[in-house]
Amino acid sequence: MLPRFLATLLILACLPATALAATTINGGNIINQTWTSAGSPYIVRGDIIIPDGAFLSIQAGVEVQFANSDSMSSGFDTARTELTVLGTLTVNGTQPSPVRFRAQSGTASGIWYGLVVADGAIDVSLQHASIEHAVQAIRYGSSGSVLDTEAVEIGTASQRGVWVTAGSPVINGLNIHNVHTGILVDASASAEIKHTSVYSTSSYGIFITAGAASGSSSIEFCSIHGPGLDGIQYNGTQSGTGALAVIATIVSSAGRYGVYRNNYGTINLSYSNVWGSGNTNLLNVASGSGNQSANPLFVSSSNLRLTANSPCRFASETGTDIGALPYISDPTPGLYGTLWSNTVLDLSGSPYTLAGDLTVGPGVTLSIQPGVELRFAVSSDLMRSGHDTARGELRNRGNLRIEGSRSQPVKVNTSSSSNGSWYGLVLVEGSAYIRHADLGYAVQGLRIDTAIAQDLRFVSAHHCSQRGVWFTQGNHSLDGISSFNNHTGQLVDASAAVQLSNGLFYANSSYGVFITAANG
């Protein structure tokens, strides 16, 4: 008897813990229940409903598994299970122990229907949860706003991550990916979408249909990356359609349009970054204040957190980072983007290779020491921004110090000996101290776009496809320029004036110095 008893204990000990704890829910009403990790996983075989006046509370670490059929044969999809809320649903996951809603078996999309917030629902709170393998991960149809979300991940849905058919919910803190459409808002509804990431959607990031009866919708501090079609489409169905506000949001690498207004309505876009769209970034959209178009420099295509040199840092109206996931500590894996901390480039790292535009941020100092060489990628720009989206440029908006010497000039060029292989050094704003700089094989060797006087001495600009030096505005002085083998040695626009001394111009194919004089 003893050996048989021990054998039984051994068999029981080897059984998976989840098999011992599983709780089967056959379907029907769920009234005033609390699901705990001790009863997890909860296996739902048919549609379940939280009735009006009832609650379901789900504690941290619980897994709710939905069968691939519907024993109740009811609801929006009679072949798939769904969880419908008419009362109160509270999901209390934590970061280390989230609550998971998923298929009982398989990892494909569309195995179960999803979470339905029905008209009349009292309250739905989802904290640190994931919803996988559904048709519509969340279908919201309640009047008003009864949805409270934070740190919710939605993945692998065959249709929408969130579908809003009625009401005006606040959609906050979602991470949506690998779905057909991230968020769909019908003409009978509106939504306030905040701090939400959407990526790898086969069709749309966010699609909002608006009619005359729709309220105004907004998208704030969101990140949308890599949709098959449009990042944001606002489809106004008739005259009198309201407005969509897009604020402090990043839309990148859309297959077709970044932000698109279709038919009626208005999109108010501000303090946002729309970049890298397959067709055009903005269609039927007037760009407002504070917008930009540059590579946002995410950690990866599936982690939309900003890296150190992202141009989206400090870019909101109040000086905070834009997008859903602000910078924390992830480095940018190269010398490109925007420098947000003081930087010194010395001979120990020379030559430095730059895959795209490098911008000195406001209030930041970049010091380049004698003998250092910077080499931009040849006719390529990872940032795809600035004056030339196909070529890299060194842009100053802060404090640039090029500290070359006669025997050890600072060189900025490319590995190519072809004219126009990179764009040039552009002084946008801020202050520049330049001594003994050798700028070669650019489009514009040195371009001064600021009205602030700069400290420029001993600059050599050569083999540039257009201008060696180009002054577009301001009153400047330049001492010791050498400009040769360019199209034009030096161009001064009508809005600029230059006091030139000790200049040497030769072998330029068109003009040595060309000055356009303003009237008077």
Fold and architecture overview:
This protein is mainly β and 520 residues long. Helix content is 3%, strand content 47%. The chain contains 2 helices and 51 strands. The protein has a 23-stranded parallel beta sheet that branches. Strands 33, 34, 36, 37, 39, 40, 42, 44, 46, 47, 49 and 50 form a 12-stranded parallel beta sheet that branches. The longest helix has 13 residues, at 2-14. Mean pLDDT is 94; it is low at 1-20.
Keywords for this entry:
mainly beta; 12-stranded parallel beta sheet; disordered N terminus; 47% strand; 520 residues; 3% helix; 23-stranded parallel beta sheet
Q: Quick one: biggest sheet? A: 23 strands, parallel
Shape: elongated
Distance between the termini: 114 Å
Q: Pairing-aware structural class of the strands and helices?
A: mainly beta
Low-pLDDT regions? 1-20
Helix content: under 10%
Tally of individual helices: 2
Q: What is the mean predicted local confidence, pLDDT?
A: 94
Question: Using DSSP, what is the number of strands?
Answer: 51
Rg is: 30 Å
What fraction of residues sit in β-strands?
over 45%
